[in-house]
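Review form for a predicted model. The reviewer records the input and the model, then writes brief findings.
Reviewer: anonymous (R2)
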Amino acid sequence: MARHYPEAAARELEKCGGFQVAVDNLNISRYKGVPQHLRVLNDLRQLPPVRPAATILLEQAEEKETGKKVEVPKNAKHVSVDEELYNADVIPVMLGVMEVFPEYYESVKTMMPMLRDISIYSKPFEMLEYRSFIVFSKLLARYSDDIQFNADGVKTVMAEMAEKMLNDPTCKRALDPSVMGFELEAALKLMTALVESEKANLHRA
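Model under review:
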């Protein structure tokens, strides 16, 4: 339905909380189910803007209380599907999946650009709080010598997100060596080296 009737699909999904369900399904997915749930998320991301889930819940509560249908104005606020997925906590879910299933590179390759796009709705410190540095560093350590990882842009996307956190004032305070744990300190060194390496590659190009 999302592929063939996008406008109708968007309306139905916003009414039934389908974006939250899609994220929840990814959260509880097992290894072999991850690709299917990611395909669903990718299909949803192609849908037109939708009305915010919070607004619809308030309207449904009002209709239940009054017994009258709420009239939706023609100029009602709409948001992108990416923003709805962000509000459904897709960022920590994707980071968790990447950490639990790091060996499944195709899923990592799918999620990393998605994570970058949706992270525009979050603050860099929020990304740091979700342990993104630690997850990224584990992936980097695992795939640093992998030809595909070095050629298909995943490493570059990772470096883009890492650089935003490294340059953010709030993140800088949290990344003070005097207050960091050992795991985060090790991740910081890897992420700093990654960003510097990607900058050097860009200059050479």
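Findings: Residues 129 and 145 are 28 Å apart (CA to CA).
Further findings: The two ends are 43 Å apart (CA to CA).
Recommendation: see findings above.
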